[in-house]
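We both want to read discrete structure tokens more fluently, so let's practise on a single case. Would you supply a protein for us yourself, any chain you care to pick? Would you write everything just below, so we can both look at the same thing?
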Amino acid sequence: MNDCNILDLTPLSAFYLLRPDPFICLLYLPGVVFAVNSAVHSYLILDYTDGDKVALNVGFYYIANAGGRLIGCLLSGLLYQWAGLAGCLWGTVAFCLAAAGISLGLPPRALHPDRLSVAAVGSGDGD
């Protein structure tokens, strides 16, 4: 006799079997913050670059980004081994605060607002 019930295969039963823990759902919050931060970086790297050094600065940005991801992976592994999930989360808080502190030193206004406007991109004035 087969013990499989048709109700075990419905999406509703799958939801009850796979219902997410609220704590795990909170882990998505830093991911969203870092995704928005990454989008802002794409804008800022172009804004803080002089016209003749765009390729150099964008290349440096991608190298620094890759290095940061490597260090982050290694450091998060060490933090997890030493202090568990709580240590990883406190490390995330520390790096977010450090990034916020460093960001306070950035210029408050765009250096080239005319070059990054929608009108300049649409008219081809940037070439």
In short: The chain has one domain: 21-123. Residues 21-123 form one domain. The mean pLDDT is 75.
